[in-house]
Amino acid sequence: MKIFTQRLEQVDDGAVFETVQLTFDTRQKSRFRATLQNGNDIGADLPRTGILRSGSYIATEQGEILRVDAKPERLMQVTANTPFELLKAAYHLGNRHVPLMLTPTALYFEPDHVLAEMVTGLGLKISEIDHPFEPESGAYAQHNHDHRLSPIKALHHVHH
Hints:
Organism: Acinetobacter stercoris
Domain UreE urease accessory N-terminal: 1-66
Main location: cytoplasm
Low-confidence stretches: 140-160
Subcellular location: Cytoplasm
CATH class of the largest domain: Mainly Beta
Protein name: Urease accessory protein UreE
Distance between the termini: 57 Å
């Protein structure tokens, strides 16, 4: 069984890789087992550096590459008649601190009948759907990008 132990920031053009679809729950773990579409079992023992986002790459020590994609899973889809209604639902769901995926026309969260009733009570439409789940990382989640201010933004912060 191949064991993937490294996260890759980027992959060269022309790189050869296999793909695996994983649920959000599995993509949150640093250690897991999975079966590729060709039937081969793989294992992962990755550094604990946050969620594997859809489109992430991991590698074995031998340099074999695997792309991780979000697997469609059962979700609640919230839609509204107006952008403001959708914004209001995002606010109320965000207050419950549940993983929430935002799109311009819908919100998605893992099945929860209490939250579904709350959203329906706000006058929004809710349905169950199979969809890849890529929730927002949240303001305090680990990020892989640099938070230092550019010189121009730094000047703006000093003067305001």
